[in-house]
# Entry
Amino acid sequence: MKELDWKNLSFGYIQTDYNVRCAYHDGKWGEIEISSDPNINMSMAATCLHYGQEAFEGLKAYRCPDGKVRMFRIEENAARLQSTCRGLVMPELPTELFTEMLKKVVRLNERFIPPYESGATLYVRPLLIGTTAQVGVHPAKDYLFVVFVTPVGPYFKGGFSTTPYVVTRDYDRSAPLGTGCYKVGGNYAASLRANQWAHEQGYSCEFYLDAKEKKYIDECGAANFFGIKENKYVTPLSTSILPSVTNKSLMQLAEDLGMTVERRQIPIEELETFEEAGACGTAAVISPIERIDDPETGKSYVFAKDGKPGPISTRLYHKLLDIQYGREADVHGWTTVVID
Ligand code: PLP
Ligand code: COI
# Structure
């Protein structure tokens, strides 16, 4: 393999050596298969292609300074996929099978795990699709679970630096009783126009309000929102956002730092009162927010006047990465050593 330019990787897709697969037929999961084929062969009538019976996950493997490779909170991602499966009437994948397949695919593609110093990571993408050929709108009987990996750089250019966001009122990504709390392709399809609109105007990402009242903060593109004020970590409580594993971890770390955590509805006007704000997620890690513009009201909520991330976001960012890279004691038992 030509040596990859690890330091300049974008958040893209690079084909690696292997993926792992497991099929579901006759009411049960089969054997784990290792494949070097990046393509999936299925019927054009498969339910995933027509009726969106598709679920995915996203997590990362980190090459650490002690030479080990760790993954972060695998069980949380397994649990979220199970919740998504219930939401889309798909068979749940047992946590042990999910974990075994993730470990296997990372080990098989070890040469694609970026070196520690590069700041890049190996992104792990589990994918579950309904494969039964049918045209009636009802759940498939057959499923395929695939896990592939790809080395990635930062989600936003520049990594840990502040970027501007824009409130979208013309597009919703999900409804209060819809699928926003599940990790399914349809939510991302629904976000593409808003994301394109935001990019066209020079913003790094679109910022969603709740779809029903357009009053409360939902999330930012493919990441959760948090605001910091008066030693408090404040993050939205909403049925239409994805329960982020990163956000859950940051809430714990904020508590560990002696902060108060508030998970509640956040009216958009409250943005004015935050000292710092950020987007968080596996891909985004913490992406500090420079400002959020609301074109309808003409308001601009500014969090970083000098373009520098705030002190608490910076502390949380380093604490999270220290745990993920095994540089700090993993007191909450969040990491799994995948390669010793
Ligand atoms: N919100 C959305 C819509 C996402 O796609 C993601 C990414 O997974 C997140 C939030 C962050 O979730 P996590 O921290 O589990 O990656
Ligand atoms: C993640 O943060 O893992 C995501 O899934 C974000 C995006 C690439 C969909």
